[in-house]
Amino acid sequence: MSDAAVATAAPKLTRKDFVSDQDVRWCPGCGDYSILAQVQKVMPELGLSREKFVFISGIGCSSRFPYYMNTYGFHSIHGRAAAVASGLKISRPDLSVWVVTGDGDGLSIGGNHLIHALRRNVGLKILLFNNRIYGLTKGQYSPTSELGKVTKSTPAGSVDYPFNPIAVAMGVDATFVARGVDVEAKLLQDLLRRAYEHPGGTFIEILQNCNIFNDGVWETLTDKATKADTVLLLEHGKPLIFGKNRDKGIKLGSDSRLQVVTLGNGTQEGDILVHDETNRPLAYMLAHLETPTPIGVFHATIRPTYEEAMSKQLEAARQKLGPGDVNALFKRGETWVVR
Amino acid sequence: MGGGVPREKSLGQPRMEEERKGAMRVETQAVAAAPGKRREQRDSVVIRFAGDSGDGMQLTGMQFTTESALAGNDIGTLPDFPAEIRAPAGTLAGVSGFQLNFSSLEVYTPGDSPDVLVAMNPAALKVNIGDLKPGGILLADRDGFDAGNLKKAGYAGNPLEDGSLGQVQVFVVDMTGMTLKVLEDLKLSNKVASRCKNFFALGVCSWLYSRPIETTLKWIQDKFKKTPELVEANARVLKAGYHFGETTEMFAVQYEVKPARISPGTYRNVTGNTALSLGLLAAANKAGLPLFLGSYPITPASDILHELAQYKNFGVYTFQAEDEIAGVCSALGASFGGVIGVTTSSGPGIALKQEAINLAVMVELPLVICNIQRGGPSTGLPTKTEQADLYQAVFGRNSDSPLPVLAAATPTDCFTTAYEAVRIAIKYMTPVILLSDGYLANGAEPWSIPRFEELPAIPVHFRTEAEGFFPYLRDPETLARPWVKPGTPGLEHRIGGIEKEDVTGNISYSPANHELMTHARAQKLAAVAQDIPPTSIRGDHAGDLLVVGWGSTYGSIAAAVDEVRARGKRVSQIHLRYLNPLPPDLGGILRRFKTVLVPEMNMGQLLTILRAMYLVDAVGLNKIQGQPFKISEIAGRILRLLEG
User: Fold this and answer.
1) pLDDT in tens, B503-547
2) Residue whose C-alpha is closest to residue B498's, from A67, A54, A51, A174
3) Nearest C-alpha in B relative to A332
4) pTM of the entire structure?
5) Which of B26, B292, B325, B492 is the best substitution to test chain A (most A C-beta atoms within 10 A)?
6) I need a surface site. Which of B27, B136, B286, B447 has the fewest CB within 10 A?
7) Cα-based distances in Å from A136 to A61, A82, B176, B275
8) Cβ contacts (< 8 Å) between A310 and chain B: which residues?
């Protein structure tokens, strides 16, 4: 069941309804502020009553998120948000359950729960803030930090090959895989709406700047001077074209690899790949494209959710066996009477 | 162990004598005495079926148990199987055993040592013969003792023939041969046909102890209904074994064990794991809540997951999580959503869950954590029993992290204790650890089936009123915080593992507040203590020696205490269901006895706690062999202590 389908006629809500009374304690200038603002902007527009939203997080800077949302919230333990949220969503499919995690929380200590929640297609809306660094513990490299990264724990540079979060999500057959950027407000809002409407689990990697321990990590993707040439916006049904002059595109080469080509010189728009969110192999290839870096929805497909399948089993058992009779169950099997 | 211990009966005031007098008639089928045979009465018989793990000994034992229960005996059982699913056939590692104590008297344990050993091969003989009582009966399958199997078991000659077995009545029966002969015309493969031989053994034993076989015949019908040729084969072999007993001149005596005097009621056999599952389910139903089990398979706890997975029409969610941590976390998430969350595991899994259990302590949500203990440390002895996770349960989390810890005493007591664990978890908004162990989990005894309507009420209150709501505003009596279902308008709030400000539940790093909240969590446990009923004492309320136990040692201690009391010794027993907090009256009781003995299947964990809490100079009796105490071990220790 999509969360949109459970929406009830709610009174008109505004951003303020989703702002809690707690002071936001992220460092000034942190990318998390923008993400929080987009979430608080989009939530009231979704048509679901505020009390139906639950935000669950693990540990890390991003995981402070639930405290700032005036919804139900659970700040759990390091890496386990997806597991806590799974139990909630499975037993309470009527709720819209959002998981806020980071590259350390979600991909290092909590990697196991993340991949299993995604492959099961539990209807969790997972937001993974990726700043490629450990912020709360003051600056160690993370499982998404690039090779050679010099941090407090890697003075000679990291020798630890990083995860590609989108490729991880694609690899476990997640049904909705997208990438946003903290400062790309409109795109992020669109992705949040899409996630909410998607009937099943969703994974959004949000590229986020940590201005204290990893400032400028995504600069080439966010700097107005460069981003047109470094970022590829994925739009379903539209050709994969980018560049300041909209003159570059992605083509499938004769070697079955993606090629970055320049329009003109015999290459026409008709040669450029058209993005299709339902095309899983294309999404796999795009997941590994580094320059330009794709943002937007890589893949969206529909598969029954875990909680739906489980609810159906419970309902089928009730249909077949009737509501449980505890006394009858007690007497199941061989019994005898002593007088 | 009829009727469920510690049914008030056994743990109650010194009423045990009267209780035995309430004569009961058991509905059972009379078995005619076999012609030409002498019939002798026995009060109690302990029988052990042993064979290769592929020989169907567990099944044979369970069927013999059912026959005995229907014959009106009180019973106690203990399966003992190898950790390997299929160890190489014929080897010592692959021996699987099932012991049953059936009696016309009250049964407390599966019995110290068998009167009868059924050995299907030399390895089974070698592993078990040392336990057989002097003068006991050995029933062996001749065909199982071929040269290959003798060699695998490390026998130079055939012990059935070389007189090396000593004071044992040896009956060697050609069980496999006769099985194959009876099935000759059925055109079964030799392998399939010979696998029926366990029913021959069951048939012989059923005759030998005057058990009715009709129930097993019916069971065969049901079990193999999809393969009619196996119904025919197994039924034929069972009858053949029975008739062999009747007609062979080998057996001059047929034994009879009269029905026991058991409290009136409707009974069924349950293992501890089944009883525990039913207790959780009944409590959730009583509370009117769905049950969510988040679990990861581990021996010996997995059967609870299997059992609860069958109860979907009761609104039971079972979630086989990706790991132990996800098991407990998902259960806690479900509890947050207003259902009763449960997780089940054994010691190694509990170790992984502790951080999440600590979160449950902090966020004060109901959660039941079942630890079906096994031998440790590390992987230890997965299929053997031990009760060495008491420290882990009480002390095994970072910081001051108090939570109630309960322990079940017998297989049927797993029902009562699981029910109580759910009740406490909800009433006090707290995680509760329930300790069982491999011995209780797999052991079975007759369960006096309760009426659901008569079980204690479990009131649940979900707060819906927004006015005056604070997440950590406590009930003045129980100190429970309000339980609010997400989805309730106007009560949106956040909880989490960071220290909470008193009342508001906001994040707080204030030193004074942390101390206040630490005390509040401790006081909640003190509130639970007020809910503990007065401790029952078996025996006099003061005396020379008090045996204090917890968990699955109940039966052995009770039998041992009865034995020494029968000799006029001033010995009493208490058995603790509540291990944290301890019963408020415990200190006073301990002081009324000159000596306090604490038998445990660990190095002395309750002993240490009692010594620390009450400054009592208690002494321990410790057995760490993966096997339960023998009655004689405890009785012997008591007598030695009394002699000083």
Assistant:
1) 999 999 999 999 999 999 999 999 999 999 999 999 999 999 999
2) A67
3) B268
4) 0.91
5) B492
6) B27
7) 6, 20, 70, 46
8) 317
